[in-house]
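Supplementary Methods S3. Complex input for the calcium ion-bound model.
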Amino acid sequence: MTEEKDWIKDLVIYQIYPRSFYDSNGDGIGDLPGILQKMDYLEELGVNALWLSPVFRSPNDDNGYDISGYQEIMEEFGTMEDWDRLRDGCKRRGMKLIMDLVVNHSSDEHPWFQESRTSRDNPKSQYYIWRDPVDGRPPNNWASAFGGGAWEYEPQRGQYYFHYFSKKQPDLNWASPQLREEILSMMEWWVDKGVDGFRVDAISYLDKPQDFPDSKLPPQPDGFSFPDCLAGRPGTHAYIREMNRRVYAPRNVLTVGEVSAPTVEELANYVNTSREEFDMAIPFVLPMVEIDTWSPEKLRRDAEESYAALKDQGWWARFFSNHDKPRQVSLYGDDGEYWEASAKLLGLFLHSLPGTPFVYQGEEIGMTNVKLPRIEDYDDPDTQNRYRQLLLSGASPEAALARAQLESRDNARTPMQWDNTEHGGFTTGQPWLKVNPNAREINVEAQRQDPRSIFHFYRRLIALRKERPALARGDLSFLDTGCNELIALTRSLPGERLLAVFNFSAEAHTLPARLLEGAGEALLSSYDRQGGCQGPALRPYEAALFPIN
Ligand code: GLC
Ligand code: CA
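Predicted complex, serialized as structure tokens:
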């Protein structure tokens, strides 16, 4: 990372899912003026960068991740003038503004696609991926990420188009120089308008194997197989470098790639500074995989491995939550008895790792998963697909619903809980997705008034990153605790050392006493309400941060 890019190390990035943040006009849908009205709140929290999930023109098949106009604002969210006001509000407060760029695919309602589908020889004919039928069938056996096959027939051309996501999200053809030029100049246009950075969606799939071989992976219950040679192709890295050279590097733009990278080595391919691709990467992991495989031990190992892989040449995006995952306190913590302590523990763990922390809206008040009573209550196409696949594989409707409730991306998408009034104060109308009934107890207003709340814990955490340089930039070492559920780590810079300890379980555990030698009074503890951390015996989900003398 060049020195002029060093500013990204001091950011705490807050992700807003605009549809669910705050509704300013009572139509039940969050919007840009709603975000503007909550800027004081964000400033009070202390974050210094906002990442907005897509706000571009979209028919909302996948809540904005299906763009039908890259240089327009989604009507339900407001106008370009609202966006300009939001940009100015960010600049005034010294906050960076990061936009979500979806360029693996567009909406089928984008004018490019509308034209491309009409014939084989129109000017936009090559903007998407078209293939002839093979023996009257789709070109290969690939599954779409949202269920069913990845090819859709277009009678006007007598051809199929490829869509890795829903059939309303046709993949753009990056092999076309004309298409690449459209995308790159659109990106420049946004940077010229004042965008500080991009989170780049689903970026590992840009280059396609032109012969589209059948996948050898076992079929999903509906008969299609996920592609086995799509992610991370050398051609994709070449396209990313082209974006970097042309758009990011000359303008000092921050970039976060959302990548499909199952190993740290693959992740490093996107962010190792010598490769000149992205500044940070968000690996995409399927919620069901995480639910079934995570453990405190694995969190520690992952942190250790990613640290080793990038410490000399790279930087990390640190997140537990986003709009594609269940709520972190429900997934890795305890959303029952130890809700408050475990929400604080997770916050401290993430912010004590080297890298730039991401806070997903509602995380700072410990928002939890929701259990909507019927499958029809879920809006997310991915949830609907998973439910169907489970039924096809023989699960009972009750079991399939229970699993969907656990995994659903809608867990993270229920509206922000502002106060204890109807619909959590999110809207005066009918919310587009049901508000979690626990908004009566878990809400911003209640926590702002309670100095020991999760909200105030996050405020102190974010402030500490500015006061204690070792937290953002220090070296990381994990200490041996002799117990998988106990994690202890240090962060050190010349002249400053910090120790963080965590009990990732609902049982009490005792740390080896020597680990606390030299520790001063705790700077922060998940048991503040009970008098703070009192030594090596850690209570359930107890976590604390100490200076070391
Ligand atoms: C990314 C987004 C997700 C979306 C998908 C397709 O994974 O985070 O929300 O559904 O890409 O754009
Ligand atoms: Ca609205």
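DSSP finds 16 helices and 20 strands in the chain. The chain has a mean pLDDT of 96.
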